[in-house]
What does this fold into?
Amino acid sequence: MGWKDGKKPEQYLFTVTDTFSEDWKIFKKKAKKDNKNISDALRAAVNSDISKEKAKKSLILSPHTDDAELGCGGTIAKLVEEGWDVHVIYFSAVSDRYPGLVDEAANSGRILGVTHEILDFETRFFPRDRQGILQALYDHSRKNNYEIVFTPTTTDLHQDHGVVTAEAKRAFRDCTLLGYELPWNNLEVSLNCFIPLKNRHVKKKIRALDCYDSQKHNPYFNEKFFRSVVKMRGIQLATKYAEGFETIKVRLDQLI
It folds into this structure.
């Protein structure tokens, strides 16, 4: 019994993928080079396309460059590792005081594997620019769908952080919203959501933060402090490391 048109079944199945469908010979050569049989190579290609279609998306709102990494850098590393698309919005680069921050943020983003954009709001004057910040968030929310949006906690004392979180609650109504902690900005905080981390996630967070040479004068900006926070939150979750979050809003159907 011969195959229809002289083709084997995997050649028909292979048409569901786009990556190599135009050149079957190239695909077979690649499979041979990778020491894989055709079926395994085909299955991997199909699964790769499916996983790309189903990739979940997360947005990190960072009032200033480095806030995202400080508050949830380990979680970002974990999400990216698990196949999430993670995008960071920095609202201000403080370029008048720290000209190198734009490059530092870009280097940090490359380590974490995220995409990012930097807006041009003036540091410490976010309350004045509140409507513009809301509009920027609203415009972004109309173009993108996210499962989780991370923002500073609602108890963060910094005026810029408070504005971003308040407007995030208005702009992102259809997804989970979690508040990340920045301990030096909180006299009190209610953390009721914890994400466990492995040491590799913590290391990547620290590597990303190490890009911010301009911020190393701050008393909290050192590896010992970074590790102490994730260790403390890990103890609260009965695991080695974790990052803690304030549950502002949860949409369960997007997460389960």
In short: The chain has two domains: 9-52, 56-254. The longest helix spans residues 38-53. The longest strand covers residues 241-249. The domain at 56-254 is CATH 3.40.50.10320 (Rossmann fold).
